[in-house]
Amino acid sequence: xxxxxxxxxxxxxxxxxxxxxxxxxxxxxxxxxxxxxxxxxxxxxxxxxxxxxxxxxxxxxxxxxxxxxxxxxxxxxxxxxxxxxxxxxxxxxxxxxxxxxxxx
Length: 104
Description:
Low-confidence stretches: none
Distance between the termini: 17 Å
Order of helices and strands: EEHEEEHE
Number of helices: 2
Radius of gyration: 15 Å
């Protein structure tokens, strides 16, 4: 699911996605997904015709701009093994800077 919200820099996009957690796929890796989305959006700058705030991408709370500015070390998330396949929710958030927010 997704929703749009007003942001100081444009329109914030908030999505809740799911990942199928079973033995046929590797465990969910928010850092790897962050890097893939960053690569697919030219360094978090464009998504199709939309311009993005390069510091606005978060994958399940992970954001590299915050990590680069921080002086503390962050421990990687602990992954719990699940025996039965389940749909695991995670979030993706970013801000579109060239799309003013309008509530409809």
